[in-house]
């Protein structure tokens, strides 16, 4: 007699592939489970990628969902994670095609899903910098909001996403080229914002743990750009903590 684990594995496999034998009887019952499983997977995926589904249409989206499920079946009891690998799948599945840009659109939409389940921390104001002497400023490390997600693409995916918040949005001109932006949760509301390349590069460095001085060098900011970038970071409430680089702290 098969063990409970073996029964569970064969049942899960049979839900994805009708050719796989499963001891569930009658077979009609398994067919009901299989149809429900397909529908739930597809519906959940569509909820995570509404703009992508809208741009390709239901029929093609259903095809993509089918192939994606074969390649990346759900391995979690939490439906939130169904679309975690959709961008990776599309990058492989649509490589060198006219639809390759959809992979970056999927990554943007999945970043929204990640931000949605992140924490919001109290925002710091720029006045916090007054607590440090001028010589320390370049060695400050900013902790940014946990929900912040930074995306960049060779395609105008932010323009696509923003345009498609309206009904019957026309296709976006792909010749608009590369774009970068951020996704974050603020006051329980998701925000999607296009960013200038240098500002995106600056935030990317800060989010990676770079000091203020390292982030300035990474993004090649001049004095004027630095002031506007610092003003943006604080006015947008992105900073949750400011600390001095660990090896420069005075021993307690």
Distance between the termini: 65 Å
Q: How many distinct helices?
A: 10
Q: Note the run of SSEs as H and E.
A: HHHHHHEEHEEHHHE
Structural class: alpha+beta
What is the makeup of the main sheet?
Answer: 3 strands, antiparallel
Number of domains: 2
Query: Taking all residues together, what is the mean pLDDT?
Result: 88
How large is the radius of gyration? 23 Å
In spatial order, strands of the major sheet run: 2-3-4
Helix percent band: 40-55%
Beta-strand residue fraction: 5-15%
Low-confidence stretches: none
User: What general outline do the C-alpha atoms trace?
Assistant: elongated
**Number of DSSP-assigned strands:** 5
Question: Mind explaining what this structure looks like?
Answer:
The chain has 10 helices and 5 strands, in the order ααααααββαββαααβ. It is of the alpha+beta class. The strands form 2 sheets. A 3-stranded antiparallel beta sheet has the order 2-3-4. A two-stranded antiparallel sheet has the order 1-5. 47% of the residues lie in helices and 12% in strands.
